[in-house]
Amino acid sequence: MDAAEAHIPSGYDPQLYRIRHSAAHVMAQAVLERFPGAKPAIGPPIEDRFYYDFEMKRAPSEEDLAWIEARMREIIKGRHPFRAREVTAEEARDLFKNNPFKLELIDNLIQGGLDEFGNSLPERERPKITVYEHDTFVDLCRGPHVPHTGYIKANGFKLMSTAGAYWRGDAQRPQLTRIYGTAWRNRSQLDKYLKRLEMARARDHRRLGRQLGLFTFSDKVGPGLPLWLPAGALLRETLETYLKEEQLRRGYLPVVTPHIGRLDLYRTSGHYPYYKDSQFPAMTVGSADDSDGYLLKPMNCPHHIQIYAEGRRSWRELPMRLAEFGQVYRFEQTGELSGLTRVRAFTVDDAHIFCTPKQVKAEITNAVDLARTVLDALSFTDYRVQLSLRDPADTGKYAGSNEAWNSAETAIREAANDIGLEAVEVVGEAAFYGPKVDFMVRDALGRQWQLGTVQLDYNLPERFDLSYIGSDDKRHRPVMIHRAPLGSLERFIGVLIEHCAGAFPVWLAPEQVRILPISDKQVDYARSVLDVLVMAGMRVSVDQRSEKAGYKIREAQLRKIPYMLVVGAREVESGTVNVRLRTEERPGAMTVAEFAARASKVVRARKGLF
To answer: What is the pTM of this model?
Structure first.
């Protein structure tokens, strides 16, 4: 295998990775022909797409992108070979002497052993400099690429959009222009991808959130700080209630903790300074006792640790499972904020389990089972399990000793094997304090999301000097398990909205039934139906507006309400309701009691529509 193949990240299709990487180089050549003064930075493949960053005087217009795309097709037809060669640092600096971005990359590679993204190279990989050439374009690159440009199908790629991006993701560095494209094996795959994108736009949770009246944002409140409207609040509360009930059945104890804590708490836990760049600034007050300041909490775990440490613990109390829907805060860059999926204030369905080493396997099993139960109830059935481990070549990113990490990774592997998890191991994706089991979920559009997580931690109990008294009357160190079936509640709801296109499962829908009287004469009867359904535990409203029935039905369908009950003179006389579903199916007339029984059965089962 070509040595460059080793640089294909885990989970990528090797052929598509090479095609997209090569398409990025072809695009860069065309861009430089259109904008001779532009300076290219980096241009990697990413999932489904590729991009290249440039320093340029102006962003490309639609006309520019059309020209670049047409020029790319000409270059592709030339079947120009991609040739790799290793060069010395001096040769590389001479080749790219007019490009400060490439010169920085070269210096980082030689002096600091860092790749193009600023990540440390594996210890076994000696720094070397390679360039790839095709036609008139030369780039600092480690590969891999297709043999020649003809392997990129002229009708299998498309330029997508432009965006601003800071060099190395640092707002203090130069702002660049990023050009996105996509490339596939053939036209058919490209068309399927573009159709999927169109479906994604139709399902965009930001658009549906407005349409369904779920949430909003206000400039006066601040970016990344969602405001939940009544329907969205009902959705959240229903989801929380479901999970709280499930947790109580499994022996979890509810706790509530404050939104802030002393800075020293997070120094001890390691969240400060590990997350310093993504945290809100510390708050200082005048008191000498509080001179160190306070921090909006970035995580709930240090607070839960203090609850565990509140008294002398015995082995008879373990496992202790502390659960909270706790709000946390991260100062994400404004350009990275995206609806509910990337916010600055979010709620984590957090729980922390304190247990003995012998209880680890059973607790991981229970936490994994809970995550599976929740995903199934929300119709997420296509997922894989990932064991996220430490990168042994970059141990500076992690807290704790090698011994603690080795013990934790051995324990989580054994637990995964014993419960039959078909898990894929991924190096470098661990939390800073321990390895974890991540649920990588594919939604209805085939996109992958990391949702539920179970994390094993030997480090924080050590940092906080936690203990319990064992059956031998001696002091022992507990093991800590961090567990969140949903992860961020905001992010999960954003993903769920797009997964089901806003048509939530009946049990979760903010409004489950809307009663539609045909005229004012049926309003009193409609209210009597509402009373019956409310007593049955349904979330119901009556549309009393003086609008035509067809208009009311259409609006209820746009709101994705599962059940519409049309009532006219005939229904009043017979004591029935005429049932319509949001799918436009029409079960027809039935008694109120019959409808209530059928709908309640669907809600209890958390499956189906009617």
So the answer is: 0.80
